[in-house]
Amino acid sequence: MPVTNFTSGAWSNKKATLLRWLARHRLSCLALCCCLAVIAVDSLHFGSALLCIGLLLCLTASSRSFARFALALSLLCGGLHVLRLKELNRQETLIEGGILMQFRAKITDAPHLYQRSWQCHAEIIHSQPLHYAGKKILLSGTATPPQLGQEIDAHGRWETIAAPRNLGEFNRAAHLRRLGIVAECYTREWHATAKPVSLFWRITEKGRLGFRNAITQGIPLESDEAKVILAMVMGEQPPYQDPIIDPFRQSGTLHLFSVSGQHVNLVAVILWAALRLLRVPRRYSILLLIPAVFCYAWLTGASPPAMRAAWMAAVFLSAFLVQRKADIMQALSMVIIVALLLDSNLLFLPGVQLSYGIVAMIAIGLALSRKRLELMNWNDRYLPRELYTPWQIRIGDAWKKLWQSLIISLSACVGSAPLTIRYFSMVTPISIITNLVLTPLVAGLLGLALLSTALAPLSSSLSIGCNRMNAWLARGCISTTQLFAGVPGGHALISPHDSSHDAIHVYDLPRGGAAILVQCKRADVLLDCGNERTFRSIVFPSLRYLGSEPDTLILSHPEAAHIGGGLSALQQLPIHQIISPVPSARSASFRKLQTSASEKKIPFFCAQENVRVTQDQNVAWDILQTPEPNEKYEIADNRVAIYLLHFHDYRLLLLNDASAVAIRNLCRTYPELSCDVIICGRHSLHPPEINDLLDHTEAGAVIATHADFPQTERIPSNWATSLPQRVALFHQGKTGMVSLLLQNDGSLLMQGFIEGQHRILPSSR
To answer: Do the Cβ atoms of 32 and 334 come closer than 8 Å?
Structure first.
C-alpha cells in the first residue's frame, strides 16, 4: 500500500486560494504593474522592475489577452512618464542661471502668508521672451498677495529651484518638480488684469472663507482649540514652532492636521448616517453623497490625498448603484491607474505614498483577518444569532467593531512605518492605540463642524453652541495626545543613516547662518542652530536623518542667524544644558532663548576661558577666548567665543565669526596653538586674513562658510590661490555641507556634500 501524505494537498489548496484571489483582484495587480513601470523609467532600474512586471503578469494573467493588455498599459504609463520628465528637463534647462521674464499668470491656490512675504502656485498664461503657457511656477513677493483665481501681470527673475546643500535636508527642488513647478520667481510688484476672477474661483474662495468662519465663530482664533479645529477640519496647520504640534508628532497622529483620506472617509460616513437618519433612500443618498465628498475635498484645498479619497469613495459607492459588490482594493487600484495616466509624478510624493500605502495595507489587513474576526465573538458562537437578546446583539457588534478598528489601526501603523522611517526617521508604535482613541473624537469633531456649518445661515447662536462643544472635543484631542506622547517607548528615532563612528557635520546655511553637529556614541552637541527658518527647514530634518538628538547647545555669539532657531531647538530636542559666550545681550533671539530656558529649567551657563567641556571619552571642548561680559551694546560679531574641539587625535579650531582683532589676540595669548582643521565664518566688518593664522597653527584644512548675499559673507576670491598648497580649502559655497568622518584606521575623512571634494587627514597615532 503506497504511503499517503495527509498534508500533500495543503500547498495545492493555498495555491488555488491565491490564484482565486488574484483572479478576483486582477485590477490591483494591474495597478501594481503600472506603478513598477513608472518607477522603472524614473529610477532607471529597468532589469528588476521589468522582471517584477513579468512575474506579476504570469501570476495574474488568466488569459493571453489580459496579459497583452496589462503589458500595453504598463508600457503606456512608463512612456507617458518619460515624456513628462523630458519636457520638464527641457524647460528647466532653458532657465538655468536665471532669466528675466514678463508674464501673465493665474493664481491656482490660496497664497500662504508669512511674516513679511507670501507664496503661491501660479499657472502661466503668457510669458516673454520664452513661451511657457500652461506651465506652473512658484511665485512669491512682499507686497499685498493676490487672490485665488486672479490673473496678474508681473515681472521678475525666473530661477530653477535650488537643490539641497546639506545631508538630510528636505529636497524641495525634487518635491516641487514632482508637482510640475518649472521655476520660482520673486516679484516686487504685480498688477491685476482687467479680466475679473471667474465665477468658479469666486465661489470657491467665498465657500472656503464661509466654511472657515462657520466652524470658528465664538472661539478665539489664537486658542489651541481653534488651531486644532482648523487643522483637523480644513488642514490649516499651526506654525511649525507651535508647541501644540509636538504631542501629535510624538504620538504618531500628526496626519490628522492635514485633510487626508481619513477625514474624507469620516465625512462620508457622517453624511451617510445623517441621510439614513432622514430616511433618504439608498440610491438617492449615494447620488447626494458623492458630490458632497468632492465638495468637502475641494473646500479644504484639494490636496492629492483628499482628492484620491474622494475619487475612491465615488468609485466605491458607485458599485452599489450598479448592484455590484464594493471592494476597497479594486476602487483604490482604479484610482491609481487613472492617476498614473494623468500625472505619474504624484506617485513619488510622500503624502501620496502614505495615503495609497496605508489604504492598501488596511484592505489587506481586513482581508486576512476576516475569518479570525468571525471567531472573535463576544457571545457563544454555538448559539444561533436569532436567540440573541437585543443587549447581546449590541455588545457583540460593538466588540466586533472594536477588534476591526484595532486591526485597521495596526495595519495603518505597519503600512506607514517603512515610509515614516524613510522620510521622517521616526517610528511611533503608540499610534496603534492613539489612533484607536482619537478616531471617535475626530469623527465627533468633524460632525459638529458640519452641523455648525449647516446651522450658521439659520441661527448664529446654535452654530456658536456647536463650536463651543467642538472646542471641548478639541481639548480632549490635545489631552489624549499629550497623555500617549508621554508613554515611554511610544515613539523612537530610527535612522538607517546613523553612522557607527563619531562624526562632525558643518552645515551650509544661507545668509551667514551657521550650525555644527558633533556626533558621538554617548552624547551629541550642537554648536549654534541657524535662524528659525533654517533650523526648521534644514537643521532639524538633517538631525532626524542622521539619527541625532543633541543634549547640549553651545552658542558662538548672540546673532539671530546663529541662534534664532534656539526656541525650536528647545522644543524639538532633549536639550539639557546651554553654554553661552555672554550672560546678556541686546538680541531679541538671545533674550527669548534665555527666558525659554529658564521656564523649562534648563541650565544656562556662561562660558569661561580655559575651561574644558567634556562631551565623550575622546571628545572635549576647550574654551579659548570669550568676549567681555559687560559690553552689552557691542555688535554681535564682536562678542564671539572661540573654541578648540579635541576630536579623538585631531584638533579643530572653531573661529565662528571672530574678527581680525580677536584672532590676533588669540595668537598672542596662545603662541604655541596648533590644530588640524580651521572652521571659520565671516565677520561683518573686519573679516580676518587666514594666512597668518595658518602659519601660526599649521592647519592642513580650512572650512569656510560662504553666502552670495549679503556681500560681507562672501569668501575673498584670492583665497583659493593665496593659501599654501598643503592646505585644503573647503569653500562651502561650492561644497555645501562638509562632513568629517572618523574611519576604522583612525584617519579623518573630510568630504563635501555637493562637489564630492574630499581630503583624508592621517592619524597621528
So the answer is: no
Beta strand extents in 129-260 (DSSP E only): 136-141, 151-159, 181-186, 190-192
Q: Which of 422, 645, 657 is nearest to 519 (CA)?
A: 645
Residues facing 760 on adjacent strands: 749
Geometric angle at alpha carbon 423, from 481 and 36, rounded to 5°:
125
Closest CA to 305 of 257, 269, 272: 257
Q: Nearest to residue 577, comparing CAs of 550, 539, 546?
A: 550
Mean pLDDT of each 10-residue bin along the chain, 765 residues long: 51 65 75 86 68 63 73 89 89 82 91 84 90 90 88 92 92 89 91 88 88 91 90 82 81 80 84 88 88 89 80 83 75 88 89 84 82 73 76 82 85 86 86 88 92 91 93 93 89 81 94 93 94 92 92 95 93 93 93 94 94 95 93 88 96 94 93 94 86 88 87 82 88 94 93 91 73
Place of cell 601660526: 696
Q: Is residue 556 a contact partner of residue 656, using CB atoms and an 8 Å limit?
A: yes
Q: What are the beta bridge partners of residue 121?
A: 138
What does pTM read for this prediction?
0.86
Q: What would the DSSP string read from start to end of 470-503?
A: HHHHHHHHHHHHHHHHTSTTSSEE--TT--SS-E
CA dist 271 to 277, 280, 451, 454, Å?
10, 11, 10, 12
Separation between Cα atoms, residue 626 and residue 421, nearest integer Å: 41
Distance CA 263, CA 241 (A): 24
Question: Which residues, in sequence order, are bridge partners of residue 120?
Answer: 139
- How open is the CA angle 29-35-37, to the nearest 5 degrees? 105
Q: How far from chain centre, in Å, is Cα 108?
A: 22
CATH match of 503-761 with 3.60.15.10: yes
**φ and ψ at 9, to 5 degrees?**
-90, 0
**What pLDDT does residue 756 have?**
83
Name beta bridge partners: 346: none
Q: What is the dihedral of CA 468, 473, 479, 483, to 10 degrees?
A: 170
Q: Is the peptide bond before 129 cis (omega within 30 degrees of 0)?
A: yes
**Residue 183 contacts by C-beta under 8 Å, 6 or more apart in sequence?**
92, 95, 137, 138, 158, 159, 160, 161
DSSP characters over 62-74: SSHHHHHHHHHHH
Using the CB atoms, write b or e for 701-716: b if 16+ within 10 Å.
bbbbbbbeeeeebebe
How far out from the chain centre does Cα 148 lie?
25
SS3 category, 159: strand
d(CA 442, CA 447): 8
Structural Rg of the chain based on CA atoms? 30
DSSP output for 48-101? HHHHHHHHHHHHH-SSHHHHHHHHHHHHHHHHHHHHHHHHHHHHHHHTTT-EEE
* Residue whose cell numbers read 517610528: 427
Angstrom distance (rounded) from CA 231 to CA 238: 7
Query: Are 326 and 25 contacting, i.e. CB atoms less than 8 angstroms apart?
Result: no
Give CA separation, 348 vs 86, 112, 402, 521, 588, in Å.
Answer: 17, 23, 34, 34, 41
Question: 3-class SS at 752?
Answer: strand
Task: Give the DSSP letter string of 660-706.
Answer: HHHHHHHHHH-TT---SEEEE---SS-PPPHHHHHHHH--SEEEE--
Amino acid occupying residue 517: L
Q: What is the domain partition of the chain in residue ranges?
A: 25-91, 95-197, 503-761
CA 551 to chain CA mean position, Å: 23
Sheet holding 611-616, edge to edge: 611-616, 619-625, 642-647, 650-656, 677-680, 701-704, 728-731
Burial class of residue 133, CB neighbours in 10 A (0-12, 13-18, 19+): exposed
CATH for 95-197 is: 2.40.50.140
Residue 343 phi/psi, 5-degree rounding, is -155, 95
Q: In this structure, which amino acid lies at residue 256? A: L
CB 253 within 8 A of CB 481: yes
User: CA-CA distance, 95 to 110, in Å (whole number)?
Assistant: 26
